[in-house]
Amino acid sequence: MELADIIIKFVLVVIIFAISLLIALYSTYAERKVAAFFQDRLGPNRAGPWGILQPFADGGKMFLKEEIIPASASKFLFIAGPSLSIFTACIGSAVIPWGQQLTIGGHIIDLQVTDINVGVLYILGVVSLGVYGVMIGGWASNNKYSLLGAIRAASQNISYEISMGLAIIALLLVTGTLSLRQIAEQQHGFWAHGWFTWNFFKQPLGFLLFIVCAFAETNRTPFDLPECETELIGGYHTEYSSMKLGFYLFSEYINMFVSGAVMATLYFGGYNFPFMDLIHSPNLVAILGVVALFAKIFFFIFFFMWVRWTIPRFRYDQLMDLGWKALIPLAIANIVITGIVITFLNR
Amino acid sequence: MSTFYFIAFLSIFFSILVISAKNPVHSILYLVLTFFTFTIHYILMNAQFLAVVNFIVYMGAILVLFLYTLMLINLNKESEPRKSGLIKLAAVVGGGCFLTTIIAALKAFKISQPVMLQDPNLGLVKNLGKILFNEYLLPFEVSSILLLSAMVGAVLLATKDPKTT
Question: pTM of whole model > 0.90?
Fold first, then answer.
């Protein structure tokens, strides 16, 4: 690998990291504005025009608040919990293809940090690692509410990971590859060979299962039982203050962003958009592709917020019933049906 | 090769910490790190699928369940059962016998015959799937029945006997 390639990759990593943080920052603002819209209020409107500086004011507050580590807490793990949480949130975006190749001054720039050939499984691995941050933080707080939140997070994540994996298996039957770049390439354009190219139209049930599981894995309402404040005060982050609490909240928004990107790539064509073959400049297609992908991601982030302010929280037994008695059988049925349909189509 | 020795050192170091840690939750966390070093070993051997599956299944699911159980039990010094000196002596004798056997077995093993990979790309998903579902189909399916029977057995153990209640 040449020096120029290394510099390009480094710049790409920094840009993606900065964009993740910026989107997470403004998701907090968007969440409050969306909530205000749904509840017929104004939302934050004091800091700057339309309250647009509110996230920075919140961030400053988070950094400047007093940092408290409970006397009976396990100090190292208490700090490790939120760090691990934000770490796993940030590494998920490494395999997502952000756009087609750009050619600038003879250099071909891949708009993807790395194209490992088990990309889909890497995403699943990162998702399954995400629960450790919550569990370690909840246990290290040495507080009964935190512990209950951590235990809820563990059982919820494990239960929904299974149906998420099964939903992905059905998708892999369609795509035949584990590389996210190839999956995105297969969904080129919008219409080909008499059917939509986007996987959503080939796997509608699979997408439904995946998005429900994504809500559970990111701990978003209606599945935010680990931090259910009516029962558990703050759940796993009851004892946290200052920026360590900020990291937990932040990682939730980064997870939303990354899961939006994953759903857009796996099911909604990634960086592809309709009529992309009519544009002849490859660089313009690549840039418009990035814009299209981000438009899809923003729609998913809005969808996360839309659901949060519309649907009430599940009860814990309802959550487990849904996971084990509805989603897993549906996912297995989806695999069987997909397999039969593919066998008939390939004849 | 030096990467291998470094990772192998880390594996052994963390596994010693697993058994020497006083707090059971700490030892599970060290076990997580041990499994993570195993994942790196698999990647070094170009077995990417195995690496990722080890990551998802062992680190992401099984050890989370371990941690879950230990958090509920909340073991500490007061609740730990006192072991008598006789049991400790028996453990030392048993461990010594095991060590002797292992050393004897390793001496018989010829170092000059390292296992050579016939196909370095064997660990990729496509090749692995083809081999599992062609050459080794029967063992593969039999092992799935084994897992199914284990699962049914676990469910049977967990449900209460209707006659006794």
Answer: no
